[in-house]
Write a structure and sequence with these properties.
Layout lengths: L15 E3 L2 E5 L8 E6 L5 E6 L2 E2 L6 E4 L2 E4 L1 H4 L5 E9 L5 E8 L9 E7 L5 E2 L4 E7 L5 E2 L3 E7 L7 E8 L6 E12 L2 E9 L5 E2 L4 E10 L5 E2 L14 E2 L5 E3 L2 E4 L5
Parallel strand pairs: 2-9
Antiparallel strand pairs: 1-3, 3-7, 4-5, 4-8, 6-7, 8-9, 10-12, 10-21, 11-20, 12-19, 13-18, 14-17, 14-22, 15-19, 16-17, 22-23
């Protein structure tokens, strides 16, 4: 006897959100709600989480149709740096919004410069290997937890990425790496790696420096094309002043420049 087998299960479609990256300034005059548009694809929003904490609907955010409005009062409570909010749905994969939090009301009290070279300078390879030296050029110490560095590049094929800190005087475990996709791709960059430091990294004394040696790879170890990447140094084999690796204190740009 022949048995006809069918599968009437409806395929699950993932919901999406736009944008996936946003900025927020803690300076009171500049604070603004952040609007996120959902394409639900038949699903419903279940929750928004910040790590293990669940945001409170009506207080931390509101929903009107397919638009979520993240309230400025909630975002103002977040620390300077990056906050990742996870949108969970009734079915399908969760989606993430990376909010870069700055505070331009805090004037930097220290000056930094970044020196850099690339450990691997081949045009194509499965690893990005920038090496940084962060130098405090001021007369006062700076808390490393207030400092961010950025390395701009093109991902050359969208994949999940992994960050490795191989060595730093601040302690490899105290160096953080966050991948941020640019809302609008540039010719020489569509992502940046943002380096930060935990409070356990301590301070960088006046006139002192630390090295940060890192690697970046895609989950499938496919190649990056480094040629033309904004922050890539294709020439030097030792540390040189590198303005294409910008540095920030409390969200304020104090060294270098971002891609145009």
């Amino acid at each position: 006897m022949a048995v006809a087998v069918t599968d009437t299960t409806t395929p699950v479609s993932n919901s999406t959100i736009t944008p996936t990256n946003a900025g927020f300034d803690k300076k009171t005059a500049n604070q603004a709600d952040v609007a996120v548009t959902m394409t639900l694809n038949g699903n419903t929003l279940s929750a928004i989480k910040n790590g293990t904490a669940t945001l409170v609907a009506g207080t931390d955010y509101t929903v009107s149709g397919s638009t979520v409005t993240l309230k400025k009062e909630y975002l103002a409570t977040q620390a300077v740096g990056t906050t990742t909010l996870t949108f969970e749905f009734s079915a399908g994969a969760a989606q993430s919004l990376v909010v870069t939090v700055s505070d331009t009301s805090v004037a930097p009290t220290a000056a930094l410069k970044v020196q850099m070279y690339n450990g691997t300078v081949t045009a194509s390879g499965n690893t990005l290997n920038p090496k940084f030296k962060l130098v405090n050029t001021s007369t006062s110490a700076v808390a490393l937890s207030d400092v961010k560095l950025r390395y701009y590049y093109t991902i050359d094929g969208e994949k999940a990425q992994s960050f490795f800190c191989d060595w730093s005087q601040a302690g490899s475990a105290n160096v953080t790496g966050t991948f941020v996709k640019l809302p609008t791709a540039k010719a020489d960059a569509d992502y940046y790696l943002e380096l930060g430091f935990s409070s356990a990294a301590g301070s960088l004394a006046a006139g002192a420096s630390i090295d940060i040696q890192v690697r970046v790879a895609k989950e499938d170890w496919s190649n990056y094309t480094q040629t033309g990447d904004y922050s890539f140094n294709a020439v030097d084999t030792n540390f040189v002043d590198w303005t294409k690796a910008p540095a920030y204190i409390s969200g304020n740009l104090i060294w270098g420049s971002e891609p145009n």
